[in-house]
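User: I'm putting together a teaching handout on how sequence relates to shape, and I'd like one worked example. Could you take Bifunctional protein GlmU from Clostridium cylindrosporum DSM 605, show the sequence you're using, and then write out its predicted structure as tokens right after it?

Assistant: Happy to. First the sequence, then the structure tokens directly below it.
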Amino acid sequence: MKACYGLILAAGEGKRMKSKLPKVLHKVCGKSMIDYIIDAVKGANAKDTVVVVGHKADIVKGHLGNKVSTAFQDKQLGTGHAVMCCEEFLKDKDGIVIVLAGDGPLITKETISKVFEYHIESGSSATILTADAIDPTGLGRIVRNENGEIEKIVEHKDATEKEREITEVNSSNYCFEIKELISALRKINNNNAQGEYYLTDVIEILKGEGKKVSAYKTSFKEFMAVNSRDQLATASAAMKERILEKLMADGVTIIDPLSTYIESDVTIGSDTIVYPGAFIEGNTTIGEDCIIGHNTRIVDAKIGNGVEVQSSVIISSEVKDSTKIGPFAYIRPDSVIGENVKIGDFVEIKKSTIGNGTKISHLTYVGDSEVGEGCNFGCGTVTVNYDGKNKYKTIVKDNAFIGCNTNLVAPVTIGENAYTAAGSTITKDVPDGALAIGRSKDVIKKGWVQKRGIKKK
Ligand code: UD1
Ligand code: MG
């Protein structure tokens, strides 16, 4: 097979987005548009890929790092000019290149692979990815002759009334023989409605030279370009549908796809059930047989098997097998919650590890703590971790029992099997097996009500 390369156009300003952020860095289901396209080209085994940057090039380059090569387009003189800026990248290469628009995140690696194959097998000089659009307004039209052969692409602004009736449109993705592309690009000019060097003009030039130009037609959905916020929302909805369909095909139950938001890098095991109002984001993995309940938000987290999360928020943390979280719990970054743990309602955990089988059932704050296995935290426990300047650590060893309304003033250690009495403020370390009482003694004043003359029935 011939060597295949990728070339992504990402130098344009994206004026219609009205944004400080370059268009290709806008996110669709949690991932920048440009990253979807790079992943798709790489997934189709392109040998090397170049991204043309221009508008706010430093920001785009900073985002790309050294994932791909970049070429610089100083002035945005059109898509043809943008490809010309890659001459350095292309000149020593023999083979084919797929040119992709940086604002079309829905393209898949499967389609790119098929286009590579189709292009080579058909012996074409250029293969355009086309689709039938319900509303082709604004897009380049594919003009064919009476034999159905492609003659040229005409931009909407340059098209005649008759040409505007054509519904087959240019997706702005094409495969070219590299040598022929470079030679045709040298012949384009900017005599058109926008005064730009159009890449689309290469098609008419190649055709005029008797070269074979083909179309590879697929669904318009995959080529949806994002030029405005409105189109960003439409593309995001299409991407979300694709993500959820894939998860469902892999055995995940999604009760109401319309009210469920799951981002593209999330993985979920089979027989997990996701309830309406769930937001699962970033680099999150969820195991099998979990219940992700209503109105739960999970970001960059690792969730084991058989975990139940109800109406809670989990950020950048790990939750191990068979643990129950919520309702209304908040697991903040850098926490590791063990197996068979219960984190109940109105419990906040921050930067802490919680050992297997521990129960923290209600109204509790655990921060900067190391909690062992089999512990029980009574309602209203607070780790007092901050003195206004520094944070301090609380250590609670295995099987400790923290009474209701205990303040654990850090730094402090509660020993194995130790108890704290309800309502205690503990400021000293508690040895293994001890009971710590940190509260004033009860005082009972008999007959006090009568003596004060307070009337009671
Ligand atoms: C382009 C096609 C049109 C097609 C449509 C599909 C041309 C002339 N027209 O139009 O036939 O139907 O896409 O969405 O190619 N870019 C640069 N440098 C430039 C200009 C653009 O890198 O000088 C990049 C943009 O960042 C963008 C892509 O090229 O990623 C397409 O540019 P855009 O201005 O969106 O082209 P359209 O007018 O949408
Ligand atoms: Mg566009």
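A couple of points you could highlight for students: The CA atoms of residues 29 and 263 lie 5 Å apart. The mean pLDDT is 96.
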